[in-house]
Fold each of these.
Amino acid sequence: MNKPLRIGIAGLGTVGTGVVQALRQHGDLIAARAGRRIEIAAVAARDKKKKRDVDLSSYRWVDDAAALAKDKDIDAVVELIGGAEGPARALVENALDNGKTVVTANKALLAHHGYDLAQRAERNGTTLFYEASAAGGIPIIKALREGFAGNEIRAVYGILNGTCNYILTEMRETGRDFAAVLKDAQDKGYAEADPATDIDGIDAAHKLCILGTLAFGIRPEIGRVRTAGISAVTAADIAHATELGYRIKLLGIAQRHDDGSVVQSVEPCLVPVGTTIGAVEGVFNAVLVEGDFAGNNLSVGRGAGRGPTASAVVADLVDCAQGLKRPVFGIAAAQMKPAKWADPGAAAGHFYIHFIVKDRPGVLADIAAVMRDNDVSIESVLQRGRNPENPVSIVMTTHHAKRAAIDAACAQIGKLKAITGKPCLMRIETF
Amino acid sequence: MNKPLRIGIAGLGTVGTGVVQALRQHGDLIAARAGRRIEIAAVAARDKKKKRDVDLSSYRWVDDAAALAKDKDIDAVVELIGGAEGPARALVENALDNGKTVVTANKALLAHHGYDLAQRAERNGTTLFYEASAAGGIPIIKALREGFAGNEIRAVYGILNGTCNYILTEMRETGRDFAAVLKDAQDKGYAEADPATDIDGIDAAHKLCILGTLAFGIRPEIGRVRTAGISAVTAADIAHATELGYRIKLLGIAQRHDDGSVVQSVEPCLVPVGTTIGAVEGVFNAVLVEGDFAGNNLSVGRGAGRGPTASAVVADLVDCAQGLKRPVFGIAAAQMKPAKWADPGAAAGHFYIHFIVKDRPGVLADIAAVMRDNDVSIESVLQRGRNPENPVSIVMTTHHAKRAAIDAACAQIGKLKAITGKPCLMRIETF
C-alpha cells in the first residue's frame, strides 16, 4: 500500500473530535477506500486541558494551530476553527501557500474569500476541499462539482439550516410562537445561546453562496445574497400556510435566468405539503438541484452535528488521499466569472401575503383594488376572525406576478388606514 | 489545456444519442469541468441507417462495436448496448483488457459480472465507471463510492424502477387495477411492450445488487437478491395501505446486520405517507443510505430516460478526463469479500397481511389464534365488506415479528377452510 496521508487537525470541538473518532473507528475501512492509511500527525486547539470525549494523548499536540501550515510532517491541514477571518483564514491561506491540501468545514470563509482561496490553491498546485461546509450529511459539494458535471444548472434550492427548520417544524406542530419555540430549542441545545447567525439566515446564506458558486461557475459574493431570517414568521402565518396546503421553510434559492443572470436569496417561503421537499422536517437539511439533463434532484439528510460533519470531512480526506485535485469550485479560477446579477424586482412567482387589518367593511375591497391597479391577480383569500374590536387577518395568495409589482402593492396597501402593522410577504415555491 | 479525451460510443439508442447531444450542447462547460475537451472519436451501432434525432455525420462510424475495444484513437469506450452477455460483455472485457477506461450504463452486466470486471480493470491498470447503471439522475454511485467513504453503511433502500413506481402511483390515484394501468403505461411509452424486466423486479434487483456491492464492500451475487415484482399488488391492497397511512413502493433493500451478515431483496413494501420516501411518486427514483456517521440520506431524482442517463454518463467521462482512477467498487478487488448471507427468515419487522376470506363468524378468531400460536402480535385489523355471498377482506398489520414466524402463520392460515386464495404479505418499512 502507498504511504499514509499525514494530516493535522486544527480545532478540536464537536467536529474535530468527531473526525478523530471516525478515523479511529473506521481506520481499516477508510484505508481500503482511500488506497492508503490516513494518519493524524498532529492536533491543535486553543485549550489542551479542555475535557474532550476522545483520547488525544497519542497525537502530537501543537499549541499554535498556525504552525500546522508549515509543518513538514503534514500533507493536509484540516481547518475546523471557524470564522471568516482571524486564525482560520490565516491558517488556510498559509497552508495553501505552502502547497498543502486543505480540508475545511468553514462556510463563512468560503463565502467571503472563496475566489481568493481558489486562486491561491491553484497558484500553489494544491486544492481545498469543503464538503463539510454545507449540509454535512449530504455530499452536495461533490454532487455539484462532479455528479452534475454534464448539466447546465438552472437552480439550486436548499433547506440549509437545521435550527431554523427545527423551529419552523415545532411551531407548526405545537402552534406556539417563534420566541417560545426558540427558547425551548436553546434549552435543548438545538439552538445556540446567540442564535442570530442561524435565525437571521446568515448561516444559510453562506452555504447558499457556496452552492451557487459551484452551480453557476461564478465568483462567490456573499453580499449579493438577499437574506431574511425566520424571526418574523408568526404562529398565525404557519397556521394559514397549513390551511392553504403549504409548509413554511427557510429556503436558500440560487437561480440562473435564460439570459445568464443570477439571483440568490435566503428567505422563508411556502412549499406544497405533498412534495418531497415539503416533507423535510425537523433538523434535516435538503438541497434540490435543477439540471437541464438530470432533471430535478433532491437530497435530504442531516446538515450539522458531529457525525454528519465528520463524515463529510473524512470523504474529503479520502479524495485527498486518492490524489483528487479538481479546481476548488470545479473549474479553473481564471474561468470563474463575476456574476451578472439579476434585478430581484424582476423575479416573478406566486406569493403569500398576510395583512393585519381593522375589521371594517370594505377593507378587502380596498386591498383588492390596489392589487388590481398593480397588475397583481389574486388566487385565493382567507379572512379569519370577525372582531370589530381587534385586528383580524386577511391572507391571500397571488397568481404569477412580478416581485416589484407585489412590493409596490404592499407599500400602497400599508398606507391604507385600516391596515395595522407591516404585511408579511412570502414567496410560494412549487418547483 | 491538456489534450482531449477521445471516446468511442457503442450503442446509439435513446441514451447514446443523449450523450452525443450533451457533449455537443455543453462542450465548453464540460471541458471547463473536465480540464480538457471530451471528443467523440467514433460511434458504433448495429444499424447506420436508423433514423436518429442527432446528426452523427461528423463522427467516424464503426460498423462493429467490438472494434472500439482496440481502436488506437480511443481512450475510453462508452458501452450503451446493454445486456449481461453477448456483444456488450465482450466489448467491455476487451476494452478493459486493452487498458481502456470503460463507461457503461449496463446494470445487468455489472450485477452478473461485476467482480470479474473489477479484477480485470485492476489487472490492466484501468477502471470502469457506471454511474448510469442505477438511478441516472441521482449521482448515487459516486455518493456511495466517495461521498460516504467515512461511513460504515448499514443499509441502502431504493425505489429503483420508475415504471413500477409510476404504475403504483397511478393505481393509487385512479383506483384501477394493475393490468389496466400497465396497459395504459405501455400505450403512453412509460412501460415496455415486454414489461417483465421492470414489473417482475429484475431491473431493480440488478441496481440494488450494484448498490449493495458498493455499500458493503462485498462481491456482487445477483442470485442472492430475493426478488418479487408488483404484478400481484391489487387495487384493494393499495386502498388498504392508504387507509392505514402508507404508500406501496417496490423497494430494493440491502441491509447489513451487526454480525456483518447481509441480506438483499426487492419487493413491494409499505412506507409511511408522511415521510420523504413516501412522497416519491410517479417515475421518480429514490435511494436512502444509512451511514453510521452521516445518518440517513435520501436522494430523489429521475431514474431513467435520455437526459438523466446521459447526465450520468457525462459525469463519468468528466471523472475519466480528470484522471480519477478509483477501484471499480471503491476498494481493491482483492479486498472485496464474498458476502456472508443472512438467513432471510431471521429478518424481523412489521408486516401487512391481506387475507381474502369467506364471511363467516369466527374467521377472525381463527386467524388471530394462529398468529398468537406463532408468536406474531397483531397491531391493527381492518375488516372490509360484509357479504355472506362473496369473499371479503381481512387486513392486518403486525407488531415487530420474525419473517419466519409470519411465513409459518400465513401457511397455516392458508389452510383454514374460510380462506380463499393466497394471502398477500408485505413488509412495512419505517426507516
Amino acid sequence: VTRITLLTDFGSRDGFVAAVKGVLATLAPRAVVDDVAHDLPAGDVLAAARALARYWRRYPEGTVHVVVVDPGVGTERAALACAAAGRFLVGPDNGVLTPALSPAWGGGDAQCVSLAAEGFGSPVSPTFHGRDLFAPAAAALATGRALASLGTPHPHPVELAPARALRTAEGSEGEIVAIDRFGNATTSLPGAWADGCVLEAGGLRLRVRRTYGDVASGEPVAVVDSEGFVEVAVRDGSAADRLGLVVGTPVRLARG
Amino acid sequence: VTRITLLTDFGSRDGFVAAVKGVLATLAPRAVVDDVAHDLPAGDVLAAARALARYWRRYPEGTVHVVVVDPGVGTERAALACAAAGRFLVGPDNGVLTPALSPAWGGGDAQCVSLAAEGFGSPVSPTFHGRDLFAPAAAALATGRALASLGTPHPHPVELAPARALRTAEGSEGEIVAIDRFGNATTSLPGAWADGCVLEAGGLRLRVRRTYGDVASGEPVAVVDSEGFVEVAVRDGSAADRLGLVVGTPVRLARG
Amino acid sequence: VTRITLLTDFGSRDGFVAAVKGVLATLAPRAVVDDVAHDLPAGDVLAAARALARYWRRYPEGTVHVVVVDPGVGTERAALACAAAGRFLVGPDNGVLTPALSPAWGGGDAQCVSLAAEGFGSPVSPTFHGRDLFAPAAAALATGRALASLGTPHPHPVELAPARALRTAEGSEGEIVAIDRFGNATTSLPGAWADGCVLEAGGLRLRVRRTYGDVASGEPVAVVDSEGFVEVAVRDGSAADRLGLVVGTPVRLARG
C-alpha cells in the first residue's frame, strides 16, 4: 500500500482539494490518500513546515507527502519533488518542505528535482499547480516512477531558517515556534536542556513538569512536548492567550 | 477501485457524516470514500454546485459523487441518482447536481432516476436521507447495481440557471459566480473572451495577466483561472474584501 | 477490510492527527482509516460522546473506533481498549466511550482493558497518548491482536450520566442533549413518548411533525430525529439561537 498525504491551505469547501484528489484517483488508483489538513492559514509557509515536521517521518517509507502552500504559484519559483529518509516530498520551492530537507530541522539526506511543467502530458494552469503539476508528480512517485525522471536536479532548495536556540552561561535562550489549537506554545528549546532549569516565558518562571495534569486546572505549566521540546501550556486553557505568547516570543531556560 | 465522494453541509463534529460513512462501510466495504467537504454554508445549494463543478470530472469513470445539501429533506422533492459522462451522481433534486446534469454548465448527457424510499430495505428517517437513502443508493451503484433498478425515470431534474455571460458590441458582460477561501473571485466570463480586453470589476480596470505573481504583493490582478474563466484576485490578499465583490456582482470585459 | 475511525479535538492543521495516521499507516498498513472529526470543542467529553453515539454502530463489526478527547492525558486516568457489540473502542477512561459501554446509552455488553503504557515497544509521550498509545492499540486490534492481550481487565470504566428523561402523570420531562451545526436541538425524550403530546421548549408549545418542511420557512417545529428522539428545529434557521436553547435546557412533552 502506497500512501499520499495532502497538506494545503486551499480550504475544502470550494472543491479545489477534491479536484486534486480526483487527479490522484485517476493517475494512482491504488494509492491511499490521507488528508492532513486544508485549513492552514492562507500562504503561511512556516505553519505548513511546522506541521510537516510533526508527521512526515511517522509515515512508512515510500509515502509521498504533498504540501501546497504556494503564494508564488505560476512565478519563477521551482516546483519540487524530493526524496529524504525513504519518503518522498512534493511541493513548491518556498521552504514548506524544509523539515524533511534541512539537517538543521532534523531532515534527511535529501535529493530534489525541479519538476518540468510540461512533463505530465496535460496543460498546466498557472494558478493551480496543486492539481496540474504536484498531483501528477505525486501519482508518478506513488506508482513507482523514478524521482530523477521527473525533472532536473535541484541541489539547493529554499530552506527556512531554524528557530533560535542557544546555550549560554546561564542556561539557554530560544523562542516560541508554534501555537497549537489548544493554545499550547512550543519552544525551540530541547527538553534535554531543561535539567535543573526553570523556563522563563511570558513574564513567568515555570518548573518543567511531566504533563499538564501535574498542575491545577487553569494553572500555567511547562512540559517536554511529544517532539522533545519544552512547551508552555495552561491546563484546560490557552497559554498563548494567558501569557501573551506568539510565534517568535523569546523564552529562556535559566538555572533555577 | 470504486470511489465514492461526499460533499455535505453537515459539519463533521456531530457525527452525522460518520454515520453516513459507516453505512457505506457496511454496504460497500471495498469502495474508497473521499471526503470533499462538510463545511459548506448550511443549505447553500449554489455553493455546493459550484464546488461540484470543480471536481466531478476529475475523478475517473465509475466514481459515485454524493452531494447532500438538502434543506427540503423529507418533503416532496425527489431524491436522485444519475449517470453522466460515465460518473454517478446522488443527491436531492434541488439543483445541487446541476454541473453534471446541465449542458449549460458543462454537464454530460445525463440519465436520472427518482429513488424509491422503500427500496433499500431499512426505514428511512424523514430528516436524514443522507444516511438512509443517499448512502445506500451510492453503495448500490458502487457495488455494480444498475441505475435503472434504483427507482423510476426522472427526466427533468431541477437545474440551476447558468450564470449571466453575454457578448456585446463593446466586449462582454458577466458576473461574479464564486468567491474562494483566498478571496479570489471567479467570473462567468470565459478566458477566451478576454483577448484585447480589460476586465472591469469593483470599480477597477484590470489587464488579464498570467498569474498572481505578475503584479506586486497587495495589488489587484485579473487572471484566467484553472477552469478557464476570468478571475479577479489580489496578490497575497482578498479581492472580495478589497474590491467589495460578492456572488452576483456584475463585471465586464471591455475592449481596451 | 478493517476500518479504524478517528474522532479528536486536536484540530488538523498542526499535524498531530497526521502523526497519528502515520503511526496507523506504519503499524496497520491495510486498515482503512476514516476521519470522523478533529474540530470537537477542546476537552468537551460530552460532545465527543454524543457524536460517537451517532455512528459507532453504523460501522460494521470489527471496526475500531478511536476517540481522543483527553484533557487528563498523562495523569492517572486509565487508557482503555474495549469491545462492545462486535466493535472495538479505544480512548481515555473519562467517559468519551460511554455510548458504546453503557446500557443506559444503548451500549453493548462491553469488555474493557486498561492499556499498559509499556506494551507497544516505543516510548510514550506523557502529552500525546493519541500517537503513542491509542494509535498502536488501535493498530493492534485492527491487525487481529486479542483485546485481552493489550492490558489488564478494567471492569468499571467511567460512564457519563444518561440525560434526564422521566415519564410523569402529565406527559414527560427531559432536556436538550445536543445542538448540531444547523442549530437543531436534540432532546432526551424518545419519539415514542410524543403520541398525543405537544413539546414545550424555549417558551413555545410545538406539535411533533414529520419533517422540517412541514412548517413554513423560519417557523419552529418539533420532529422525531434520525435516532428516534424528539428534536426542536427552525426550518432554514437555528432553533438554538431563536429559542435560546443550550445543552441542559429543560423540555417537556405535555398531553395536548
